[in-house]
Amino acid sequence: MTAKTKLQRLALVASDGERAQDAARALATAHDWVSPDEAEALVVLGGDGFMLHVLHRMIDLDRVIPAYGLNHGTVGFLMNKTKSSRTVAERVGRARKVTVSPLEMIARTRSGEEVRSFAINEVSLLRETRQTAKLEVRINGRVRMAELACDGVLVATPAGSTAYNLSANGPILPLGSHMLALTPISPFRPRRWKGAILPESAAVTFRVLEPEKRPVAVVADQKEVRDIAEVHIAAARQHQLTLLFDPGSSLEERIFAEQFQV
Fold first, then answer.
1. Do residues 239 and 118 make contact, with C-beta atoms less than 8 angstroms apart?
2. 254, 171 in Cβ contact below 8 A?
């Protein structure tokens, strides 16, 4: 994490939400904005879902630049507060950088199709029917669990560890820990298995057992693939992302706060 950023050319992007569009109109003359293609950083107006969309778009275009979010959505875990006595340009100039490595998912369906996608929060496997999913779990090619019977399982990044992972009773991972959370969702067997914390370098593979009887879908952030046979997950450090946060309200601070709520 660096002390300050020195970014001059800023682009403004907003979600389709009414609050975000109102904010975009209010900020239209607040700075000499440039196009996203020319920008050194993006100012993102919206919620966490829109921020994830913007970050995924940067990965798809292979042009990753820092993103500074202003929350005009609901939770806003990846965003900054809207109210400040400073201009947006001043806030970006004072912002602290947080780097996040997304996950790359490679899913093979029962029909043999291969689908690749990235996840900034988590990759989740979920049963498609009332039948419990049965999965084989391999880490770095070695079978660590021959059969996990569950509603699903997920692999979360530190940035995503306070999202779905936390709701599934998974651990909160500090940023910079270079770890991943492997968390079962309603495990039936082994009944008391709580999951595992893995190094970021670990490659995780799930093989679906009895896929005809117990079909499973996989979701990488917002992209779903149904009827999978196998899923391979690994950190995509070549696509490292940068989020910008106001001093004292970084994503790292929010992760600390989540662990000390009373």
1. yes
2. no
Which residue among the candidates 37, 48, 221, 246 is catalytic per the annotation?
A: 48
Domain that holds residue 203: 103-236
Model confidence at 249: pLDDT above 90: no
104 touches 235 (CB < 8 A) = yes
String of DSSP letters for 222-245 = TEEE-SEEEEEEEE-GGG-EEEEE
Place of tokens 């020195």: 6
- 22 among known catalytic residues: no
* Cα–Cα distance measured from residue 184 to residue 179, given in angstroms and rounded to the nearest whole number: 16
CA distance 42 to 50: 13
Measured over the CA atoms of residue 186, residue 189, residue 194 and residue 199, the dihedral's sign is negative
The tens digit of pLDDT for each residue in 3-44 reads 455 667 999 999 999 999 999 999 999 999 999 999 999 999
Q: What are phi and psi of 242, to 5 degrees?
A: -125, 120
Question: Are residues 108 and 215 both part of a single domain?
Answer: yes
Name the DSSP letter for residue 80: B
Positive/negative CA dihedral, 183, 185, 188, 192: positive
**110 and 159 in one domain?**
yes
Report the alpha-carbon distance of residue 158 to residue 95 in Å, rounded.
Answer: 20
What lies within 8 Å, CB to CB, of 31 at 6+ separation is 10, 12, 87, 88, 89
Q: What's the chain's Rg over C-alpha atoms? A: 20
